[in-house]
Amino acid sequence: MGKHDDDKxxxxxxxxxxGRSGEPAxxxxxxxxxxxxxxxxxxHAASTLHYDLRLExxxxxxxxxxxxxxxxxxxxxRFAIRTEDHPLEYADFxxxxxxxxxxxxxxxxxxxxxxxxxxxxxxxxxxxxxxxxDDGLVEVRLHGEKLAGGYxxxxxxxxxxxxxxxxxxxxxxxxxxxxxxxxxxxxxxxLTGRDLDQIAGD
Length: 202
Ligand code: MN
Known about the structure:
202 residues, single chain, globular
């Protein structure tokens, strides 16, 4: 891992003591494919329950906190707040961040898989993920266990900084289903099958 990647994780490391929290310190190797990568959605029972959506871009996980979590209904716009880049191996982190540490509470891997950058596939004016983030429009195809198909992230306020406000919206395709409500009906971990209480108790 190079110095550049270390710099990208400065905000992540500045917020937490990974020796105490049990979270990854960040030294995994990056994928060399710029137009696809890993994604994860972690259910996080911190002071307020929320879902953290993370997309692998440039050797780190670009991250958004989504208070209500993702929807499969294209008419639902889910508010999403940009958070600091996380290390790649955070995609497999499930456990309890102890009291007193940043983000204290239980983390559950709610969905995980690969994504494709849909904007890179456009004939007209293709954009890589870095340009898409700069533009404030990210369009990805998720290949998860619970979520599938296109999702758009649209920035509504705040540039590239943390705390910028975005919307997460399901695109109209075969993965869309207004009747499904996977955050309610499929609450458990895709890694271990556990619910939040089981993770907290283990
Ligand atoms: Mn979180």
